[in-house]
Design goal:
The structure holds two protein chains of two kinds. Chain A is an alpha+beta fold. Chain A is built from 24 helices and 48 strands. In chain A, the strands form twelve sheets. In chain A, strands 8, 9, 10, 11, 12, 13 and 27 form a seven-stranded mixed sheet that branches. Chain A has a six-stranded mixed sheet with strand order 39-40-41-38-32-42. Chain A has a six-stranded antiparallel barrel with strand order 43-46-45-44-47-48. Chain A is elongated. Chain A starts with 18 loop residues before the first strand and ends with a helix. Chain B has a domain of about 55 residues: Folate-binding fold, CATH 3.30.2270.10. Chain B has a four-stranded antiparallel sheet with strand order 3-4-5-6, with no helix packed on it. The chains are: A alpha+beta, B mainly beta.
């Protein structure tokens, strides 16, 4: 049976749309093109659209928009266009659309959770916590089953999303959220007042008008005003209207974010996959106006979750805008005037409802009572719905009877509200109930920026309080209901905004007409009264949470999961607060306020990522020699954003094979490495030496021109933060290198000192990391190789000693060469203009072939092995921000008795730095099997004899490798008092708990007197 | 995300261009060697962390790389003003 009504000749609001086909749970149905999925389901007589989260109860449509908690669907399941957990009320139908219910397992007609029905009464809130916590060993078994039961849509992760997404920044003067009558009027009035203002108007649905669209049937004036607004907005170039765009977050200083759906209503085969399906907009404006409207509350009675029971405002929108009836024998129940508007609309289509008004006869406006009498509508005043009954099978299950009873409320001694049944129950047959328990202004965005709403007794709702400059509220978000009053409010707000833009203080919000409602109806003793439909929370669960001594509403919400569904409790939060306040016998105003966090509605990750996917996910930094490395097919290591060759495997080589070959080439022959990624900073000024002496721990006052020196930088706490070599170019000019990853941080930190504490120093820094490219030519044959190329530099040991630099011509290149070494081998670091980097690398390869000196490229992994053989630390690997140079055995680099101290010096004399048992750097060698390589990060254990502490762990391994030149494995570790226990045997605890014996030694293994390096 | 005025670039820019560099007006003691551990720890670690108006250092690291002072409310995130170091009022000196 179709629930579509034939439009009357007087209806003008909707044009006839062509019919299209779609699939609901694999059944072919028809719908009018452009209508919502929820409308189409209702029109096709489908009442049950999902199953509830915990009990598997049948559920129908409750709402018309984002507030819908029940009708969650998976759109286009098992295709590249799948979207999980979308509300049927937000999906616009297109031809051949496929949608399945997200919440029924295995199907709508049969959900296996309902098998547990006999024990549902034993499954209250906290059931899972209480039941499955013991025995702990069985948890992994329970977990699998519980996870199967939890969640909504099934999503196939193997299918890649085929659509495109985009992120975009927008700037403007005013953002208006919500294009209902208030939002539109504010936009138009503001623009009239100041035509230069750039206004962005966002609307979550596909057309403007909001709830006023429900008025157009009875009110030709409303219809005309909406038409006018529509036209004025369309003609105004400075008002940018974005429909299908939900503002989901509002943050500091007028920043908002919105999700714009673009191609959602186009049949899949017609979509343009290159242009975005969804856009994430980041909007910054001076003014934000929340014209977000209000969402209706459900009534609280037994079985209020049955299919066929929906919000009165939703029923009205389905009827007026979509021409679909929610029932043929409807009951309208509520506690405010809005239910009479629905009654009038139903009567317009010759459907006679029964009205149940919770307010007493005295509280109901005269004209409402009069209207019912004249139209012969059965009208119950002072009655509330108590219990609903259901009938039917499968997806046809629907409400069939509603029990009602006369009720009254009174204030308790503590000013809380208590409701009682005061007469006999009555049973009314029906096929659909529309309910209205009052309205909640949509204050989510307001709460995101830190505002706390206040409960208002008259409207029985939380109203905005404003602490944020530039944030304004307009329309029914202020507790206003009539569209005429909303227009009035818009005018007032426009004045406020104009005043604010002129820099003057605005005054408080004026509310022309208030919505009146009786206190939230709720009987405390009833069972199966659903508060949160999506997370299946009943009023009895809230009562139980309170019995278990939860008092704060924040705790009660978390324990019961009220408001924790994907709908964020849009229909449930306030009812839950009312119930809790009633049980705790506190007035709502004093009991609690409510908080919302972004996002207002779900945002797809793809939209957040936008274009930042795959190659564009993060910036990639390549050295100028990158193409040359690529020809060797290296394995890459990501260092910060730099791509560095980790090792260069040759045919069939394993990683260890390649490492051994590369390491031995360095130690025995000739090798080369791209060292362009090191951070490089130019330091100019007459105080450069003094500056370096303050940021490094050693002295730089006497370093001669032409020489280099290694330095360690400590932070003010005395801990090592970076290291590197700096060269004296001339007395007022130094060239500093930092670690690859530390460059930006070191630069910013040095600037901090120069710009704050040391403004008197004449020093200027500039980052030149990208200006230089460098190749280290390393190995016993490196001097011979350097000499084999025509150059004006004398490479002999006497003329060019270790830790010196020379500049000149070398082959075709203008170079600056440094004799520095991180490998501990004879080494020449050739620096050239970055433009020449690739050419340099290729020329070195070419020179080596010409001179029959085979040169092996080596990567970062071999570099790590080689430096560990020498005991050179890597900041950030062997140190972790808790190590001083003294801990690392580098006392020699810390200067003593200088006039000006260095950063960190005072801290290194704190009692904690001087105490016993600081962790110190040591070397480790495995005792039983010298070839066995330990795993980095493992704990070093105290010996059984050592009773000095109950903590069995005395340190951990920071670096561990197999050393091919030594023929055994080596490791570096930080160990308590390590410098004092050289040559002793300690244990390392393996992952499986077993112990490996290791011998502690000084942290250096190769060329202990540095003769080779200095050679 | 905050909107911060850089007193050097003379423009309002997005927070993403800046780094916060901690509370402002914490002078490094001149006589570090004469301080005992408690006094030194006070400079090194102890901050008021108060709720409300707060002077802090920010650096415009994605642009001019200059440090400057921002007066920000730690409770509401509202920024009242920003200054170059040589123009900023030092609340410690005025009280």
């Amino acid at each position: 049976m179709s629930y579509r009504i034939k439009p009357l000749s007087s209806d003008t609001s909707i044009e006839k749309q062509p019919m299209v086909e779609f699939y609901w749970n694999n059944t072919k149905l028809s719908a009018a093109q452009g209508e919502k999925l929820s409308t189409a389901l209702l029109a096709n007589g489908i009442r049950t659209v999902g199953r509830s989260f915990k009990y598997g109860r049948v559920r129908g449509l409750l709402g018309y928009g984002v507030e819908e908690p029940n009708a969650l669907v998976t759109l286009e399941p098992d295709t590249e266009f799948q979207i999980p957990n979308v509300r049927a009320t937000e999906i616009v139908i297109y031809d051949q659309m496929r949608a399945v219910s997200a919440t029924a397992h295995p199907s709508i007609s049969f959900d296996w959770r309902q098998l547990f029905k006999p024990i549902h009464q034993f499954m209250p809130v906290g059931f899972y916590y209480k039941t499955f916590k013991a025995p702990i060993k069985l948890w992994s078994f329970y977990e699998k089953i519980i996870r199967q039961m939890a969640g909504f849509s099934h999503h196939n992760p193997a299918l890649r999303d085929k659509e495109s997404y985009l992120t975009q920044h927008c700037y403007g003067d005013v953002l208006i959220v919500g294009a209902g009558i208030s939002g539109c009027q504010t936009a138009v009035e503001l623009s009239k007042n100041n035509p230069k203002l750039r206004i962005i108007l966002c609307e979550q649905s596909s057309e403007i008008g909001g709830e006023t669209l429900g008025e157009v049937l009875q009110d030709s004036e409303a219809r005309k005003i909406l038409q006018d607004l529509n036209q004025q907005i369309a003609e105004n170039a400075n008002i940018r209207l974005l429909t299908q765009t939900t503002v989901f977050g509002h943050y500091d200083d007028g920043l908002s974010q919105a999700l714009q759906k673009i191609q959602v209503s186009i049949p899949i085969k017609d979509r343009d996959l290159q242009s975005p399906a969804q856009k994430l907009l980041t909007i910054r404006t001076k003014i934000t106006v929340l014209a977000t409207g209000a969402i209706e509350r459900p009534l609280l009675f037994k079985n209020n979750d049955l299919p066929g029971i929906m919000l009165a405002s939703a029923a009205r929108r389905y009827l007026i805008n979509d021409k679909v009836l929610f029932a043929r024998q409807p009951i309208i129940a509520g506690d405010n005037n809005s239910i009479y508007a629905l009654a009038k609309d139903l009567m317009h289509y010759q459907v006679k409802p029964v009205i149940v008004d919770i307010r007493s006869a005295e509280e109901i406006p005269e004209e409402c009572v009069e209207y019912c009498k004249n139209q012969h509508i059965r009208h119950y005043a002072g009655y509330a719905p108590i219990k609903a009954h259901m009938m039917g099978m499968g997806h046809k299950i629907t409400v069939c009877h509603l029990e009602i009873a006369p009720v009254k409320w009174h204030k308790t001694s503590t000013n809380s509200i208590e409701w009682n049944v005061v007469g006999d129950e009555e049973k009314i047959a029906t096929d659909g109930v529309a309910m209205s328990g009052g309205f909640n202004p949509v204050l989510h965005l307001s709460a995101h920026s830190g505002n706390k709403p206040q409960f208002d007794e008259i409207t029985q709702s939380y109203l905005p309080t404003n602490d944020v400059a530039g944030l304004f509220y307009c329309g029914s978000v202020n507790g206003i209901t009539h569209w005429q009053d909303c227009l009035q409010d818009s005018k007032q707000q426009v004045e406020n905004i104009v005043t604010f833009l002129k820099g003057n203080k605005t005054h408080s919000i004026s509310i022309p007409a208030l919505f009146q409602s009786s206190p939230i109806f709720h009987l405390s003793e009833q069972k199966n009264v659903f508060v949160d439909f999506q997370t299946d929370v009943k009023s009895s669960d809230i009562a139980l949470a309170i019995r278990e001594n939860y008092r704060s509403v924040e705790h009660i919400k978390r324990y019961t999961a009220t408001g924790f569904g994907t709908d964020q409790g849009k229909t449930s939060n306030i009812n839950a607060i009312a119930i809790a306040a009633g049980i705790l016998r506190q007035p709502m105003k004093e009991f609690a306020t409510t908080t919302f966090r972004p996002p207002y509605t779900a945002v797809t990750f793809a939209a957040m990522g936008g274009g930042h996917q795959n190659d564009l996910f993060d910036a990639k930094r390549y050295t100028s020699m990158h193409p040359a490395h690529c020809r060797h097919n290296p394995v890459w290591e990501l260092v910060g954003q730099w791509y560095r060759p980790r090792y260069y495997p040759q045919e069939k080589e394993t990683m260890q094979d390649a490492l051994n070959r590369e390491c031995l080439a360095v130690r025995q022959n000739l090798a080369m490495m791209d060292v362009s990624t090191l951070g490089k900073i130019e330091i100019h000024g007459k105080d450069a030496r003094e500056f370096l002496s303050r940021v490094y721990t050693n002295s730089w006052h006497k370093l001669p021109v032409g020489q280099c020196r290694y330095g360690i930088m400590c932070d003010e706490k005395g801990m090592i933060m970076d290291d590197g070599v700096s060269s004296c170019i001339d007395d007022n000019h130094f060239y500093m290198t930092t670690t690859t990853g530390g460059a930006g941080r070191v630069y910013e930190w040095m600037e901090l000192w120069l710009q704050t504490e040391w403004q008197d120093l004449d020093v200027v820094l500039s980052s030149v990391t990208d200006q230089w490219a460098a190749v280290a030519v390393v190995g016993p044959q490196s001097r011979e190789f350097m000499q084999s190329i025509e150059s004006d530099i004398d490479f002999s040991a006497e003329a060019f000693p270790f830790m010196h630099w020379r500049s000149g011509q070398w082959g075709d290149f203008q170079v600056r060469i440094m004799r520095v070494s991180f490998s501990g081998e004879l080494s020449f670091e050739i620096n050239v203009n970055a433009d020449k980097g690739l050419e340099l690398w290729q020329s070195i390869e070419h020179y080596s072939e010409k001179n029959n000196l085979k040169i092996t490229p080596y990567g970062t992994e071999a570099m790590h092995v080689l430096r560990a053989e020498k005991g050179f630390i890597i900041v950030g690997q062997d140190t972790d921000g808790s190590n001083t140079p003294q801990d690392m055995g580098m006392d020699w680099i810390v200067k003593a008795n200088e006039k000006m101290s260095f950063i960190g010096e005072r801290s290194q004399k704190r009692s904690d730095m001087l105490r016993e048992k600081r962790k110190q750097l040591v070397g480790l060698k495995t005792v039983d099997n010298p070839q066995y390589t330990l795993i980095e990060g493992l704990s070093v254990m105290r010996s059984k004899e050592d009773k000095s502490s109950t903590n069995p762990v005395i340190g951990h391994i920071t670096s561990s490798y197999y050393s091919p030149i030594l023929g055994y494995s080596i490791a570096l570790a930080v160990v308590e008092d390590g410098q004092k226990i050289h040559n002793s045997i300690v244990n390392v605890r393996e992952k499986d708990g077993s112990m490996t014996k290791v011998k502690v030694c000084p942290p250096a293994f190769y060329d202990l007197n540095n003769a080779i390096m200095r050679g | 995300m905050l909107k911060i005025h850089c007193p050097y670039c003379q423009e309002d820019r997005e927070e993403i261009e800046f780094h916060c560099a901690g509370e402002a007006f914490i002078a490094r003691p001149a006589n570090t060697e004469e301080l005992d551990d408690t006094q030194w720890a006070d400079y090194l670690f102890h901050r008021d962390n108060h709720k409300g108006w707060h002077y802090e250092q920010w650096v415009h690291n994605a642009a001019c790389r200059k440090y400057f002072i921002v007066k920000r409310n730690t409770a509401t995130h509202q920024i009242e003003q920003s200054w170059r170091f040589d123009e900023a009022p030092n609340p410690n000196q005025s009280t």
